[in-house]
Amino acid sequence: MRQNGGGVRAAGLGWSDHLIGEGRRRQMMGLFWIALPTVAFGLLAMLLFPEPGPPPRWRARLSCRTRALATRAAAVRRRLHLTRRPSPPPEPDPFAALSLQVRLGFLATQLLALEADQRAWARGKRIQATQAAYDDLLDEACRLAGVELEATAPRTEPERFREEIELASRGWSW
């Protein structure tokens, strides 16, 4: 290290080069760049995931003020008519309705064939299963068409008939 009139700077050395060697300096910088994100993410985690128990007073005050500000902003939006009006419900997909009608028609035909065939194996169970599948499709069709459903567990014939008539009045056929 030269100590001419310019001192350490004139020799072309950095401010830390005369205190520690170049290899040691690189090690310290590596540790710094490893520790910096660790500390930053640790602080962020402390803020986002507080410890259990009552919150600190500053956080409670901040929460109250934030809620009050949100209430005032909502009142201003209502006053200025800035709130969105609810959009009308979207029209049902015609291909989904057509698919449901085809499946309902298939199940209705299958149910009629099962009721007509007296020699079918496990006929009662097959009729029950087909009827349950038909009822599920009927529920889905009613929801798609906007027909009001009655919430009863076992569906009776009059309820099924009422829903079929409602769907037919809205243009459904199967």
Polypeptide structure, described:
It contains six helices and no strands. The chain is mostly helical. Helix 4 (94-116) runs antiparallel to helix 5 and helix 5 crosses helix 6 (157-169). It is elongated and about 100 Å long. The N and C termini lie far apart (98 Å). The mean pLDDT is 82.
Tally of separate helices? 6
Number of strands: 0
Strand residue percentage: under 5%
Sum up the overall morphology in one term.
elongated
Our Rg estimate from Cα atoms comes to 38 Å
Pick out the low-confidence regions.
Answer: none
Structural class: mainly alpha
Distance between the termini: 98 Å
Helix fraction bin: 55-70%
Could you report the average pLDDT, rounded to the nearest whole number?
Answer: 82
List SSEs in N-to-C order.
HHHHHH
Please describe the biggest sheet, giving its number of strands, its sense, and whether it closes into a barrel: none
